[in-house]
Write a structure and sequence with these properties.
single chain, mainly beta, five-stranded antiparallel sheet, 0% helix
Length: 175
């Protein structure tokens, strides 16, 4: 059964034992930003629930198996195995709770990006437009551009052509 714990505001850890492998998923979310990373470690099948400890450098997870006790170290986005059991001495234990599965507790979807404003500058995303004072810029088009655009230059030689031309007057290329 998977376990989860909130490490800090917006940062969660999910632990699951799949056979002999411990899967650690670290997710963090802040306004406008979401990240998630997972690692798998060969620890053996769990014989007791995992224990999580807050350390000055991050967090340590104690995994107990029939073969041995393992420590998984988390520092920022780094996850690795540590063999130093003394590293958790005096550390604060964090409560873990069982969950259905990490995949059933996904990160909430991000809300759509609101138009940005900085002073008299405004920016929207669909289509991308930017206004600053009396200047403006637009990328993309709210309506599709028809494929029948007027040709002004030959695609072969670059010579000037009229929209009614069927052949290039410079190189003879057929349009």
């Amino acid at each position: 059964m998977p376990y989860e714990c909130e490490l800090s505001t917006g940062q969660r850890i999910y632990l699951d034992c799949q056979g002999n492998q411990t899967i650690v998923t670290l997710s963090s979310s802040q306004p406008g930003q979401q990240q998630q990373s997972s690692c798998g470690f060969q620890t053996g099948a769990w014989t007791a629930p995992p224990q999580l400890f807050q350390t000055p450098g991050g967090a340590m997870i104690k995994i107990t198996t029939a073969q041995a006790e393992s420590l998984l170290q988390i520092q920022g986005n780094y996850m690795g195995i540590s063999s130093d059991l003394s590293a958790i001495g005096g550390s604060q234990s964090l409560p873990m709770r069982q969950v259905a599965s990490p995949s059933t507790t996904p990160m909430p979807p991000m809300p759509p990006m609101q138009p940005m404003k900085m002073g008299d500058m405004q920016m929207t995303m669909n289509p991308m437009t930017m206004q600053m004072g009396n200047m403006g810029m637009q990328m993309g088009s709210p309506t599709p551009v028809p494929h029948t655009q007027e040709r002004r230059f030959c695609s072969q030689c670059g010579g000037r052509v009229d929209p009614s031309d069927r052949f290039c007057s410079s190189c003879g290329h057929q349009f």
